[in-house]
Every structure is written in C-alpha cells, then in structure tokens.
Amino acid sequence: MSETSGIPRRRRALVAVLSTLGLAAAVATAATLPADASAPTPPTGWTQVFVDDFNGTAGTGVSTTNWQYSTGTSYPGGPANWGTGEIETMTNSTNNVSLDGSGNLRITPIRDSAGNWTSGRIETNRTDFQPPAGGRLRVEARLQVPNVTGASALGYWPAFWMLGAPYRGNYQNWPSVGEIDIMENTQGLNTIWGTLHCGTSPGGPCNETTGLGSTTTCSGTTCQAGFHTYSMEWDRSVSPEAIRFYVDGTNYHTVTANQVDATTWSNATNHGFFIILNVAMGGAFPAAFGGGPDANTVSGRPMVVDYVQVLQSTTGGGTTTPPPTGSRDAYSAIQAESYNSQSGTLTETTTDTGGGQNIGSLANGDWALYQGVNFGSTAATQFVGRVASGAGSAVSGLVEVRLDSRTNTPIGSFSIGNTGGWQSWRTVPANISSVTGTHDVYLTFTSGQAQDFVNVNWFNFGH
User: Which DSSP state fits 262?
Assistant: First the structure.
C-alpha cells in the first residue's frame, strides 16, 4: 500500500490456480471454485513453505502460530495513521477479524454509532519469505474484496501485500526496504493494482509514492462479486531478476531488476519479507479516487480470504528463451517458453533432448502468443509440436494454431492424451490451412475436461 509519510500501507490444484514462468491459473475455474476451496497442491518442483486455509470454528480469531495482529493507528513509534492517512483503528476483536467456520477469514471494517471506524490488519510472524538463490517464490491468496460498490464503497481500501523484513521494528525505512503490493483495491472499483515500492520517497528511482505498478480488471465476475486468485512470483532463476503479478493466472505486470539501479534493487530485495492482509478505511489511496469514507459509506462489508499460500522452487526454471527482438522463422524450432504473452502456463525445466524449459500445466482455455512468425512466400501446410502428457486416462485435449487473434478459427490442431508422463516427449504433426506472410501465432488449448492435459517444449511449421 503506497505511502505518504515514509511508512508502508502496505499446480494448480483444483487444477487451476498458478501462471507463466511460474504461476498458472485457469480464469474460469478460479471464478467458479467454492468459497472454501483448499489451497492448491504444489506442482512438481515446488514446495509449500506456508499455508493457511483459515479452517476453524466460526467466530474465532486467526492462528497466532501463523499471524500477529497489528492494532491501533500505527506501529510503535511509527508515523500516525499507518503513514497513509487512513482513519480506522485496527483491532484484534473477532468483530473485525474472524474465521467464518466455512474455511474463510473475514476482515470487516465497522463504523460505530459515533462514526468511528475499526478494522483488522494481520501480518505473518515469519519474515523470511524470499526466493532461494537461483530459485523462485510464489505468494498467492484466493479472496473476495469487500462486496460493496458506488457511493457505499467510498473509503474502502483492502490489500494483500508484503513488506521487507528490515521494516519490522524500525518503521522508518520505507520504501528502501521494499514493499510488494500483490493486490490493492479501492472505492469498490473493478480494478486491481499490483506494485513494487522501493528507493526513496518522494520521487526517486521507483517513482514514489506511486511506485512501479500497473492495473488490471477482474474477469468473469467483478473483484467485488466473486473470489479471485491474486499471485506474485519472484524469480531469481532469470536475468534480470523479475517480480511478476497475476490475477487468476494472467500475468498483467512485471518489474525487473534492470528498471532501477543495482543498489536500489538490492536494498529492496536482498532479504526476506512478511505478508499482510488488511482493510483500511480512508487515506491517500481512496482520496485519489474520490475520498471517503463519508455518510454514504456502508459499514460491515468484509474482505473474505479463502487461503494464503507460499511456494518455493529451489531449482530455478532452467534456461529461459526470451522472445526474439525481430521476426521468428516458422520453419525453425520455436521454443514454447519464448512466448510474448500467455495465460495459464507454467514454465519448468524439461528433461527432453536439448534441455532448457517447456511450458506446462496447460488446460482448457490456456494460450500462448508468439509474435512475428514469418512463413515466407511458399505456403506452410503442416504444424509440428513437441508435446508430453501425464494426464489421466479419461483426459485429453486439442493443441490448436490460430493466427493474429486467439478468437480466430484454428487453422489446424492435433489431439493429445497421455504419452506416458509429463516429461515423456512425442513429436506430433498436424495439417493446417495454407499460410504465407508474417503472422502472430497463438497456441490455444481446448479440452472438455478441467484438468491439465499437455506440456509443450517446442513447435515449428513445414511445407
């Protein structure tokens, strides 16, 4: 949560909640899971290092083994109003922070008869969340922001975020120690903000107090009307190091180390982090979008959190082939992980001949885009894919090729089922409609089942 006075505001099991270069999720599935869905089982190569499914008796507080309450209007000795101008008093009361008995946490802002607001803010006891050297870290939560919109939502500011460990106990070293806002929302808007805060404030290399951020919307249902999965992947297996932001498995924002100087990046990331969940009322962020709370603001609309989970990969992602700067040759192998954009994919180390990486966790509705594929003046009539599958016996699907838009009719496809394992590779050809010239190529994945059904290492075209 961006600051105004030097203190921060802050595989896919169920088969569909993790995305590219690591976090892959199927948007439709994420929107339709039950409110008390369990945290996804880690994919191969990943270890679950923290999880809270918020199971417990209705009306009880959170596990103090996992969480600590931040109460009052500031940290001890820290700037007032949490440094952001928010007006609520944070409490450990179950009126504000409680389990609902159905596998969810509810953080509820409440206004009393005198017009004073209380709410809740919890932080992990652990402060050591960071990727290992050469590895990756995923932090994700499935949650529903307060279901309130319009004038009734003025002042609401829910957030799921992380602060650098050196902040705890100091409370004056923001933003240099780093803040990663995985999900911020305000004013009941169907908009999510993902941001890295770093450097100095105001201004500085990270444009504080705005930070290095971007926005996206929630699809299927609005952010307020349904549960969505908000994720961050911090990747030390690539150069430059990257922090990626996702909603329902779609990577909408990436910050890389080369966007700032080396000292700024090191100060912001060369340590562990802790996780925070809270709902603020008022402050600088809502003020930028109309202010509040005021007399129209409705009390008692909670942020409902299904689970929080942290995964770690110690092996890294192998050697990633980046997208080329020029056109691609349709008749040479196009590495699947060299996409320009994607939704729902996981990048992992392959054991196929030649090594490198493949894209995986591919299920119905997932896709990857490869821009500027040059077919030349002699028509291509064949598509060849290097694929593997460990899908169940009743699970299969289509690998499709589309040109220039992922909603265009496929020019060709092949069907794939179990090949003997997720790293048991097979080269599969398919006929396609004649293609010449230069096109953006979409690989799309279609299945009548929800489960993952294929991995792809590379593909090319032939005459």
Answer: H
Tell me the CA distances in angstroms from 362 to 16, 257, 446, 452, one per residue in order. 9, 29, 9, 5
- 171 Cβ contact list (under 8 Å, min separation 6): 7, 75, 76, 77, 78, 79
pTM here?
Answer: 0.67
Q: What count of other Cβ atoms lies within 10 Å of the Cβ of residue 172? A: 12
Going by their DSSP bridges, the two strands 380-389 and 454-462 should be labelled as: antiparallel
DSSP annotation of 5 reads S
CA 388/CA 234 separation, integer angstroms: 27
412, β-bridge pairs: 401, 432
CATH homologous superfamily for the domain 328-462:
Galactose-binding domain-like (2.60.120.260)
At 210 the three-state DSSP class reads coil
> Whole-angstrom Cα distance, residue 276 to residue 159?
8
Neighbours of 424 (CB within 10 A): 15
Asked if 163 and 274 count as a contact pair (C-beta separation under 8 A), the reply is yes
> Beta partners for 299?
none
Q: Where do the structural domains in the chain lie, given as residue ranges?
A: 17-313, 328-462
- Buried-exposed string 101-131: b where 16+ CB fall within 10 A, e elsewhere: eebbbbbbbbbeeeeebbbbbbbbebbebbb
State phi, psi for 87 to the nearest 5 degrees.
-110, -10
Could you report the per-residue pLDDT of 113-148, keeping only the tens digit for each? 999 999 999 999 999 999 998 899 999 999 999 999
User: Which two tokens mark 382?
Assistant: 């064949």
Q: Is the dihedral of CA 391, 456, 399, 33 positive or negative?
A: positive
CA-angle at 457, arms to 452 and 458, nearest 5°: 125
Nearest to 347 by CA among 425, 420, 248, 456: 456
Q: What is the pLDDT of residues 286-340, one digit of tens each?
A: 999 999 999 999 999 999 999 999 999 986 554 556 677 678 999 999 999 999 8
Could you tell me which CATH number the domain at 17-313 has? Answer: 2.60.120.200
Q: Give the containing element (helix H, strand E) for 28.
A: helix 27-32
Question: According to DSSP H, which parts of 33-171 are helical?
Answer: none
Residue 439 and residue 1: Cα distance in Å, rounded?
41
User: Cβ(47)–Cβ(129) under 8 Å?
Assistant: no
DSSP conformational letter for 203: B
